[in-house]
Design a protein that fits this description.
Largest sheet: 6 strands, parallel
Oligomer: single chain
Strand order of the largest sheet: 3-2-4-5-7-6
Number of helices: 22
CATH class of the largest domain: Alpha Beta
Helix content: 25-40%
Shape: globular
CATH architecture of the largest domain: 3-Layer(aba) Sandwich
């Protein structure tokens, strides 16, 4: 037991969990935490320019590294500014821990008009968090933070919000730090044996791999199972990189209807692992997924509540993806299966593309892929080219393709790229963003300048919200309120202290990226291009 101020307990608890970076902005109510960060070594603070940016940085940090991202924000508006990023982290099952101050403990919930007060502040966060709690005692600070990290180690990842009344942060209390040793639950041996029997008998087995495979670090086990079964692998957007997409076993990204619909229809046994069948990807503007009564669906996931929510499986397995895949490979034994898949037919499906996938769009994506090393991290926003990249850009390693698939929010790429670079300083990180999305979070360019982060921000400029214009024309045969009055982007970058360049065309992109990666700070690369989204409404 030791006696420390509440702010010190916050920092000590984070240090005990191995946290090396936190993102945030100081405010009058959370200054005790910042004072502890200044006095206690071991944690580097990254100062953002807006709490939304700080939380997106934490998301990018976590999504690219697998380590929890941590955000520190102040009471009321500081806290609620982080809600949109947490909604994205929730949808993507990304571990982000948000520690926020609150009004003094005797004022919580009383709606008396205290400074920064949001009555029952924590209630704003419960719908988008795995855990959201307001502390009722300063002595609970270290145990609550330890419990939050333990939850992330043992259950489905996602955001956590801890609200601490500001008087607790300054109070000296006796407590102790601890680090939990929990692990994810294993799969039941009988379920694994049943799954192995069904997969062994399958003529055309198919694997659908989601983000749970990457979260559990089960990429090698997934590849071993695919080769043992001679089964093609589809990945969800969150599961991209779980199989290198230049490996023959990889087939396509699930929402890519033209490549996946035929393969799914022809499979007799479908094994979905670490995948929750999100409606955006399975019932969206492209794929309308369904299974026939004569198909067998086996669904393995860490979260029991997602099994059967969208599609009822013949066999549901609750447990860790890595444990389940390892046991399946062991149960099936050595050798290599010989499935009855028509490989020529699969190859034809794999390359199928909409007539709207133009040579120009394909050339832009191919140029970008050639210009980047295998380990480079690509951070996407939401713009015309990003919608195509969602399932057309080749992803060759896990955690190298960051995409806000859950919320499809504008403004993600700039701060998330900063978080990814902080987590992976030795690796190239590039943000691909539209002119509209860039202006959502342009202020965080100042953060990249402050920390001298050599990130190229590639701004695809069509002077409008291009996807919205396209939808308006498709649905209503007219468009409006989507055209933008943009600044001179390279000049704006230079005003921040960054490099700025307007590229003459796509062919100039590789050399510009190479120079940007070698620079002593961020570079804005503007590319004037119009790309329509891949959606098929008719």
């Amino acid at each position: 037991m030791a006696k420390l101020a509440g702010g010190d307990w916050v920092v000590e608890a984070l240090r005990a969990e191995g946290v090396s970076h936190v993102f945030g902005i100081p405010g009058v109510h959370n200054l005790a935490i910042y004072d502890a960060l200044l006095r206690r070594p071991g944690i580097t603070h990254i100062l953002a320019r807006h709490e939304q940016g700080a939380a997106f940085m934490a998301d990018g940090y976590a999504r690219s590294s697998g380590r929890p991202g941590v955000v520190v924000v102040t009471t009321g508006p500081g806290a609620t500014n982080a809600l949109t990023p947490l909604a994205e982290s929730y949808a993507g099952s990304i571990p982000v821990v948000t520690i926020m101050s609150d009004v003094a403990s005797h004022l919580v919930g009383r709606d008396l008009g205290a400074l920064h007060e949001v009555p029952n502040q924590i209630d704003c966060f419960r719908p988008v968090c795995r855990m959201a709690e307001t502390l009722t005692s300063a002595a609970d600070i270290p145990a609550t933070i330890a419990g939050a990290f333990d939850l992330l180690r043992t259950g489905r990842p996602g955001p956590i919000a801890i609200s601490i009344p500001n008087d607790f942060l300054g109070a000296s209390v006796e407590a102790e730090t601890r680090r939990g040793d929990g692990r994810r639950p294993p799969c039941h041996v009988a379920d694994i044996a049943d799954a192995a029997r069904r997969l062994e008998r399958a003529q055309r087995p198919l694997i659908i791999a989601g983000g749970g495979v990457i979260a559990s670090g089960a990429e090698r086990e997934l590849l071993a199972l695919a080769r043992r079964l001679d089964a093609p692998v589809l990945t969800t957007v969150m599961g991209r990189g779980s199989v290198p997409e230049d490996d023959p076993v990889w087939h396509a990204v699930l929402p890519n209807k033209r490549a996946t619909e035929g393969a799914i229809r022809e499979a007799d046994v479908v094994f979905a692992v670490g995948c929750r069948f999100a409606a955006r990807s399975t019932q969206g503007l492209l794929l309308n997924l369904s299974f026939t009564p004569d198909q067998t669906l086996i669904h393995l996931d860490l979260d029991a509540t997602v099994i059967g929510r969208m599609f009822k499986p013949q066999l549901g397995i609750v447990g860790d993806a890595r444990d389940g895949l390892t046991r399946l490979v062991e149960t099936l034994g050595p050798g290599r299966g010989t499935s009855a898949w028509d490989r020529a037919r699969l190859a034809e499906l794999k390359t199928a593309a909409s007539p709207r996938y133009t040579r120009e769009v394909a050339g832009l994506i191919a140029t970008l892929r050639r210009a980047l090393p295998r380990e480079a991290i690509v951070v996407n926003d939401q713009t015309g080219i990003n919608y195509w990249m969602e399932w057309r850009y080749p992803v060759l390693a896990p955690r190298t393709f960051l995409y806000p698939v859950g919320s499809a929010t504008l403004g993600y790429a700039v701060p998330a790229a900063i978080g990814a670079k902080i987590a992976n300083p030795e690796r190239p990180v590039v943000a691909i963003v539209g002119d509209g999305g860039f202006m959502f979070s342009v202020n965080e360019l100042a953060t990249a300048v402050k920390y001298r982060l050599a990130i190229p921000f590639v701004v695809m400029n069509d002077d409008r919200y291009g996807a919205i214009k396209w939808l308006q024309e498709e649905i209503f045969q007219r468009w409006g309120e989507a055209d933008l009055a943009n600044p001179d982007f390279p000049a704006l970058a230079r005003a921040f202290g960054a490099r700025g360049e307007r590229l003459p065309g796509v062919d100039a992109l590789p050399a510009a990226l190479d120079a940007a990666f070698k620079a002593g700070g961020p570079t804005l690369l503007e590319l004037n291009v119009t790309v329509e989204p891949p959606w098929e409404l008719k």
